[in-house]
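go over this chain:
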Amino acid sequence: MALLAGDAVETLLLAPLPCLQISEDEAILLGLWRDFSLENAANAHATLALLAEGESVGPIAKAMGAAIDRLVATGFDMSALAAGTMTHQESPK
């Protein structure tokens, strides 16, 4: 995430924690994590190419892929990130 923040084409905007809606940038990041968890590297690389400087795309993709691998190895069920498997839930105020 430090590479993505440091080499981003534009500053990523994240909503404050108590916000009831996610921001567009947060939705893009969730999509990236979904793509990596579904082993769809082509989509992830295409998205990263729009977000970061060219030479940073590979290292960012490698780091995100490694993070997913470690999450899966520790027992996290990443299939929940797949489209259509999650229901909308508002955060409590």
The mean pLDDT is 83. Residues 54-73 form the longest helix (20 residues). The two ends are 28 Å apart (CA to CA).
